[in-house]
Design a protein that fits this description.
Blueprint: H1 2-24, H2 31-45, E1 49-51, E2 57-65, E3 70-78, E4 81-84
Antiparallel strand pairs: 1-4, 2-3
């Protein structure tokens, strides 16, 4: 089971890196990349929660503060949760 989780998280991490590379290069990521990222996040979260997939939203925003000269890129996920799943005994 841990192998599958490691694989899913590795894939999600690589896709997130791709999105961040697009953002830093000043280009917009393709909707295909964002959809793959969204699906990976839903797959991981839904192991632990029942989620409303239709209302699930992922955004990448870039903001900068001219006064301090700092910039930040944020990935924001709005995930409506119906309930926490029962993991059963001996599951963490």
């Amino acid at each position: 089971m841990a192998r599958r989780r490691d694989s899913s998280s590795s894939i999600a991490r690589e896709r997130l890196k791709l999105v961040l590379i697009h953002d830093r290069a000043g280009t917009s990521p393709s909707s295909n990349v964002m959809e793959m990222l969204r699906k990976d996040i839903v797959n991981v979260i839904s192991k632990y929660f029942d989620v409303e997939e239709d209302d699930f939203d992922v955004e990448i925003k870039h903001s900068s503060d001219i006064q301090s000269g700092s910039a930040a890129t944020r990935l924001t996920a709005n995930i409506p949760i119906r309930r926490i799943k029962s993991l059963g005994p001996n599951r963490h």
